[in-house]
Request: fold
Amino acid sequence: MSDPALETKATGNDVAMAFDEFMTAFEAFKVENENRLQEMEQRMSVDVLTSDKLERINRALDANKRRVDELSVKAARPPIGGESAGCIGSSASQLQHKSAFHRYVRNGETSALRDLEGKALSVGSDPDGGYLVPDETEATVNRALKDISPIRAIAGIRQVSGSVYKRPFAISGPDTGWVGETAARTQTNAPTLAELSFPTMELYAMPAATASLLDDSAVNIDEWLAEEVRIAFAEQEGSAFVTGDGVNKPKGFLDYTTVDNASWTWGNVGTVSTGAAGAFPASDPSDVLIDLIYSVRSGYRGNAHFVMNRSTQAEIRKMKDADGTYLWQPASRPGESSTLMGFPVVESEDMPDIAADSYSVAFGDFRRGYLIVDRVGIRVLRDPYSSKPYVLFYTTKRVGGGIQDFEALKLLKFGV
Reply:
């Protein structure tokens, strides 16, 4: 029997039950928030017990939402091909690579992998740096990263074979205008081009296995490796895509120079201020969210998302419009995002809490605004010596990232 820790599927009943619990928690939240608002109107203060109860429900709501998302991902996750899965749709070379990789991981045999990479004239790996994992395993790791990494799920992604991806962009477009059918055409100026550069940096994880695990033929070794590295990769990536300084890691969208949106220029990120240090304005707090939405051009709003952490979302969840409808709404079905004013909300714990002059809410089209660059190939170096009796697997991938369209993303500044 396989290790229970390796089970990754969830049933439809599990998802439905978790989603019902989530909706029940949201209804309880609304009831308690109404009590809070009534106490504020009647007594100009809120009972401590009411506040505590509301916060407990808020935390339960977040926990239930995470549970629904996790089960939805597991229910949709395809199995990584095992001994019985497949040979269908795989080429002979892929099957040879997979078999050779299994022998390397389980027993440390390298001759078959050396021969295969020699025939392929591979420059993506070497014995000192490890060996490339099979394509199927790489695809599964990347798919898992997209499932659990909040920014990767909404950003643009480009795969490259080199170490740097360069993208030209026009600082100024060509001269254009209207002209009569027979009128003389004046000579137009050529566009001015510049270049954005996205270098890829090495990201690593080092899972450990026991000899008995590697000897157990019932354990799908591809699935085990993917499960071990995906969370470590996702946590490191998620932090870098938001706050990374670009030194040996991607450059996060919060690390760029910010300017008030009224003075926005290319190369900077535009901001909208709440007008209150470390808080939403006391009256009509939702107006600043409307200002943030409409600071983004209409061409970007169609695929726009809000990005914030759990505590910021908890504050916004209490807001209502003039008709008494909550601005934050739960997902209509499992696996979908909650919405704020009709736009999906992405929860990223790497976003800062609300504080004086913090940029705690981001909004825009991240698919056009932020680019993630993946270098093709994930490498594994087997190390049975450094931590006996365990076998370490030094697993690396190269990834970069940065803003590619500065018009597409805006930030909410909690200050004046």
Remarks:
- The CA atoms of residues 267 and 320 lie 35 Å apart.
- The first strand starts at residue 131 and ends at 132.
- The chain is about 35% helix and 20% strand.
